């Protein structure tokens, strides 16, 4: 029974249905928790789902159960590289290469790790302030008149990625204690404050591309970064993380608000006037005039809002299953079958595998 579930999971993975694949592997593991291959394969599905921490945990379990399983080391190396844990990734890949010396992927990924480690070390060296040469002839009066050096403001790189229902934001701040990180969520506001010892606090407070559900958002402080998950209020593809940079690519579904009253934003620090920020955002949205692609998106959104239930189901199903290449309002046509991806003329659909 467990092997049958694993075969179905493999089929789902090849069809790019990674959520289903991960779920089926989990059921197979429940039936046979001693099978290392199930954990390694679920790790691969988790990598595709951008669940890199879970993928590392699965790979570690697979290695514990079967230390000679080469693909488990590949999965751990790939997931650790995504988490920017390059030294850990390299160690796992080198161990895997000793287990499977004929597997060329290990050598290629180790070379990539070496390059990334070298770049990381170079960045650390550049961040160290140069030592000023001492001079015994410098007059004390001049030294007293020199203005004190202002502490450098830490600049942490950030990236964002997304799934249909959520957006992930990674702020690459290494070695920051959890108590030094404060993250707050508004309807369309993200506020991140990171206190750094001896330096000015880092602030990242963008107005977001789309609205979110604050009570469903969460964050985690890891050793190399702060990982933030934003729950979208509407199933649309964000063109960017911040408002005003591009247009949404999907029609708006009918997302009913679970709470009719004004949301309360949890915060350990008083003084933020979220109501004022929310009012400003709503005023900007009201005054905004649409044209071009924005007008077209609003046109499709209006169609969706005025459609009946079957039309909405057809639009959502066709768009999601076709990876955004098909939008149908005919439920009878798309309701009984999977909608295949149909790339535009001159383009080719590809599936990416390790």
TrEMBL record:
Tagged with keyword Metal-binding = no
Start and stop residues of the TPR repeats: 70-103
- SUPFAM superfamilies to which the protein is assigned, alphabetical: HSP20-like chaperones (SSF49764), TPR-like (SSF48452)
Q: Which InterPro entries match?
A: CS_dom (IPR007052), HSP20-like_chaperone (IPR008978), SGS_dom (IPR007699), Sgt1-like (IPR044563), TPR-like_helical_dom_sf (IPR011990), TPR_rpt (IPR019734)
Q: Which Pfam families match?
A: CS, SGS, TPR_8
Q: Which UniProt keywords apply?
A: Repeat, TPR repeat
Give the CS domain ranges: 153-242
Q: Which GO terms describe its biological process?
A: response to stress
Question: A Gene Ontology MF term for this entry?
Answer: protein-folding chaperone binding
UniProt domain SGS: residue ranges: 264-354
Q: Which family does it belong to?
A: Belongs to the SGT1 family.
Q: What is this protein called?
A: Protein SGT1 homolog
Q: What is the lineage of its organism?
A: Eukaryota, Viridiplantae, Streptophyta, Embryophyta, Tracheophyta
